[in-house]
């Protein structure tokens, strides 16, 4: 899918630019790493070969933990090991995001694109909670909110690859979500028009009160990310992916391990680093 405003094809897997990724890693070291002071550990646990990274989503459109994770992978394994990212079609069609993210390896979130990448030996990063997790209210800051979504398990089973959970705590403090606005999204039928399940109302710089998903200036919240041991399922293939009970059990296992890790990481963050505590 291309247009004059969004020149990069959302489904073309050959548009990633290693030089731009390396440049962004250097820029990250000089700026965001110093601003947020994140800690990332556990990258050595990632096995060889293609994997499906599954993380909890934070901080709305900012998502600083994504940059921190990829930077740690570059330091440990080089630019080629950086996973491709599955991104929301609407967001990835916007001109600024299209021109910035596609050369970094973002593609339209679809099973077809992910399966093609994994089959070619590439790793993939997905945030199953999507907008619901990224815009969860501040009172749920320490929760992993997948909202019942299990497509990531079916993807891993069909591809026959392990899932590597990535847990992050603290990054959601870059702004404050007052409400995720699910009722607003339903009233405006945004799920049909834009595939959005939420329409948040937040407190963020420089806007003060921010209505809807928008870019903002993040507070210097410190966060911690941990790459957990890979999860390999006993079964794989189409039959396993079509077994609803098995998929449910596998998803519950991944969600449980992520939630336990996020809760543990929350307790390691110094209170003074929690911008909204």
Short description:
With 277 residues, the chain is of the alpha/beta class.
Characteristics of this structure?
277 residues; alpha/beta; Glycerol-3-phosphate (1)-acyltransferase; seven-stranded mixed beta sheet; 12 helices
Note the topology:
Layout: H1 18-30, H2 32-36, E1 39-41, E2 52-55, H3 64-77, E3 84-87, H4 89-93, H5 95-101, E4 106-108, H6 111-119, E5 124-126, H7 130-134, H8 151-159, E6 163-169, E7 176-179, H9 182-187, H10 190-193, E8 201-204, E9 208-211, E10 224-227, H11 238-241, H12 244-268
Helix pairs in contact: 1-3, 6-8
Q: How does this structure look, described?
A:
- With 277 residues, the chain is of the alpha/beta class.
- It contains 12 helices and 10 strands.
- The model has no long low-confidence stretch (mean pLDDT 93).
- It has a 7-stranded mixed β-sheet with strand order 1-10-6-2-5-3-4, with helices on both faces.
- It has one domain: Glycerol-3-phosphate (1)-acyltransferase (3-Layer(aba) Sandwich), CATH 3.40.1130.
CATH topology: Glycerol-3-phosphate (1)-acyltransferase
Order of helices and strands: HHEEHEHHEHEHHEEHHEEEHH
* Strand content bin: 5-15%
Biggest sheet layout = 7 strands, mixed
If strands are numbered along the chain, what order do they take across the biggest sheet? Answer: 1-10-6-2-5-3-4
**Number of H/I helices:** 12
Alpha-beta classification: alpha/beta
Count of separate structural domains: 1
Radius of gyration in whole Å, from Cα? 18 Å
Task: Please give the alpha-carbon distance between the first and last residues.
Answer: 43 Å
């Amino acid at each position: 899918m291309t247009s004059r405003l969004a020149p990069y094809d959302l489904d073309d897997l050959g548009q990633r630019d290693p030089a731009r990724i390396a440049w962004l890693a250097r820029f990250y070291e000089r700026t965001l790493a110093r601003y947020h002071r994140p800690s990332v550990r556990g990258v050595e646990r990632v096995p060889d070969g293609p994997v499906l990274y599954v993380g909890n989503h934070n901080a709305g459109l900012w998502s600083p933990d994504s940059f921190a994770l990829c930077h740690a992978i570059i330091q440990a394994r080089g630019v080629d090991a950086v996973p491709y990212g599955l991104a929301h079609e609407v967001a990835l069609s916007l001109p600024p995001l299209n021109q910035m993210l596609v050369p970094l390896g973002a593609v339209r979130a679809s099973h077809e694109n992910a399966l093609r990448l994994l089959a070619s030996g590439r790793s993939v990063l997905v945030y199953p909670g999507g907008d619901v997790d990224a815009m969860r209210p501040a009172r749920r800051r320490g929760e992993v909110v997948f909202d019942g979504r299990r497509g990531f398990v079916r993807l891993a089973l069909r591809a026959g690859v392990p899932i590597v959970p990535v847990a992050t705590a603290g990054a959601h403090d870059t702004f404050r979500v007052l409400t995720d606005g699910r009722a607003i999204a339903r009233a405006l039928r945004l799920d049909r028009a834009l595939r959005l399940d939420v329409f948040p109302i937040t407190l963020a710089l420089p806007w003060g009160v921010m209505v809807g998903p928008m870019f903002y200036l993040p507070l210097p919240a410190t966060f911690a990310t941990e790459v957990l041991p890979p999860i390999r399922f006993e079964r794989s293939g189409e039959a396993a992916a079509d077994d609803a009970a098995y998929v449910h059990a596998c998803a519950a296992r991944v969600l449980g391990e992520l939630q336990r890790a996020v809760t543990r990481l929350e307790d390691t963050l110094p209170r003074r680093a929690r911008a909204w505590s």
